[in-house]
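We give the chain.
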Amino acid sequence: MPENHHVHRHLRTPAPGRALRIGIWAAQVLLAFVFISAGLVKLTTPIPQLAAMMPWAGQYSETFVRSIALVDLAGGIGILLPALTRILPRLTVLAALGCAVLQVIALVFHLSRGEADVAPLNVVLLALSLFVLWGRNGKAPIAPRQF
């Protein structure tokens, strides 16, 4: 019996360190800010002005541009709000996955258009999204609120 207890103790993951938890929260806040800001800009800026900032915005339908804005907003809200409220915190994990996928698509999209200047931002956002995904999925998950 004691041997079984010994094995069980090794299977338990140690509590995440304070620095890791702070780092994950910082990444979530930063991602939320970037995605929500980007979403609001793409949603509210007239297309001609937006195209001056982002050439692609003038080369695709307004529906496409505004749809990307909604995806950005959903990702930004989802990466922070469920974890913050502890209401359906698994949604933060899914949002982090969605943000990571979005950045891979954005990276390919921008590189295919010769817009390599924005690639570093996509890579940083991808890395932060993967960090939150890794952290909230396993290392430092958020427990759901008990009602």
